[in-house]
Amino acid sequence: MIVKNTETVSIGEKNSFPEDYGVKIEYSLPENFRFGVACSADQTEGGDVGSSWNDWYRRGKIKDGSDPAKCVDHWKRWKEDADLMKELGVSVCRIGLQWARIEPREGEFDEKVIERYREEIKYIKSLGIEPLVTLHHFGNPMWFEEKGGFLKDENLDLFLDYGKYMAEHLGDIVSEWLTINEPSVYAFRGYLGYDCPPGHNSMEEYLTVLSNLCYCHVVLYQSIHIQREDMGFTDTMVSVPNHLRVFQPKNPNNIYHRFCCSRVKKAFQTAAQKALLTGEYTWPLKNRHKVQRGEFADFIAVNYYARSTISSMADGTAEDCYRNDLGWEIYPEGITEVAKEAYEILKRPIWITENGTCDNMGVFRHRYIAEHLGEIAKSDLPIERYYHWCFVDNFEWLEGMSAKFGLVKADPETGERVPKISFDFYKALIEKRGVDKDIYNMYLKNQHYLKRKILIGAEDGNN
Ligand code: BGC
Q1: CA torsion sign, 375 to 378 to 379 to 383?
Q2: Which of 148, 328, 372, 407 is exposed most, by the fewest CB atoms within 10 A?
Q3: Nearest to 93 by CA among 174, 181, 163
């Protein structure tokens, strides 16, 4: 690997240094802004618990062959992880529940597992960190999957029963909930993109599953509120995290690009957003369960990663842009662009419930965080929280363990936790509630994604 001196190297006119290269980033975030981290159960806990991802691994579908049962063993190391979060200085964190572990057989809930989640949640709270709990994050128990999962209307009550059961059994200690992580991504990858379980490829199924998930969210939104009200609580906060991308036509002057861009955006993003947050069903979604219009989120939950550049009825990436190690465009301005669009659908406080990047060498994640939080600092939207994805390197679904999103590394042999430079950076940023001269000089000076372009060029032999 050739690491060149980024101050002097020139890589051609097209890719020459942007004018703001090396320009100082300095900002501060308001006193009441809360910093956090996010994880999901299926991606960190480990264990062969009979989930659809354990099965997907056995079928040889994980690109690098990693076994989610090994993962980073959060199920056993939860206390150590919570202590590290405390050291990081976050005041909020997002954790997930694993349905397959909680309900290993239809209708049979494992009380010991629930007790273990209670222990973890209570411990996190005792450290002064408020947990935001996700009920469903891409993984299903195989018994549910084998019945046809979310594709079959008659199965939906099985999921809703699980959700209600958890609200009943954790409602006394959990006030903040997320119902279903990224319904459109789950429906798309599993039922149209065919690369995630159950691996189907049908537009009709995608729309059916998405519509069913929108309905399930609304039912759970109401059930969690009712459950906690019955328990005497008035501080319940429930939402649904949507994966929001910025969509741009590849050539804005090309009518076909513009047409595809608008269609792809509606089908993947806008229709689901509207149905989930307000019960308004627009093309191409059908209101299969006759959901009444309403307001079904107490805050807007935004998962933001990248911008898409569209020239056909498929996703795409701009040719000349900064990219992460999975090839996703790094586009910090997008974090507030998508938040604004969501806010226009429903005016609620905004929580960024996921934002992060795949940086396998740990060389630009801190810059990525600095720039995304910098956009938030500039914005006048009511963005109240930021949960960085991911706290620890996670099982990245199809990519397995080789795509690194964590602030903390988990040693593949021993599981030992090793904080990365981005951990130190985020800790310093949290302490100062922003980026000042010292943080800039220490972590960000001369550090730009461009460096990555050069590294990639060096590897590929292109530059
Ligand atoms: C998902 C996470 C995933 C992350 C990075 C999000 O869309 O919610 O589970 O790890 O993207 O790919």
Answers
A1: positive
A2: 148
A3: 174
The model carries a pTM of 0.94
User: What pLDDT tens digit does each residue of the chain (463 aa) get?
Assistant: 222 223 322 223 334 445 455 556 899 999 999 999 999 999 999 999 999 999 999 999 999 999 999 999 999 999 999 999 999 999 999 999 999 999 999 999 999 999 999 999 999 999 999 999 999 999 999 999 999 999 999 999 999 999 999 999 999 999 999 999 999 999 999 999 989 999 999 999 999 999 999 999 999 999 999 999 999 999 999 999 999 999 999 999 999 999 999 999 999 999 999 999 999 999 999 999 999 999 999 999 999 999 999 999 999 999 888 899 999 999 999 999 999 999 999 999 999 999 999 999 998 999 999 999 999 999 999 999 999 999 999 999 999 999 999 999 998 889 999 999 999 999 999 999 999 999 999 998 877 665 555 555 444 333 2
Distance 40 CA to ligand 1 centre (A): 9
**Ligand 1 touching residue 396 (CB < 6 A):** yes
Q: Report which of 388, 390, 422, 360 is spatially closest to residue 45, judged by C-alpha positions.
A: 390
Residue 282: CB atoms within 10 A of its CB come to 13
Distance 95 CA to ligand 1 centre (A): 13
Cα(139) to ligand 1 centroid in Å equals 12
Q: Ligand 1 centroid vs 290 CA: distance in angstroms?
A: 30
Amino acid at 24: K
Ligand 1 pocket member 404 (CB < 6 A): no
CA dist., res. 373 & res. 434, Å (int): 8
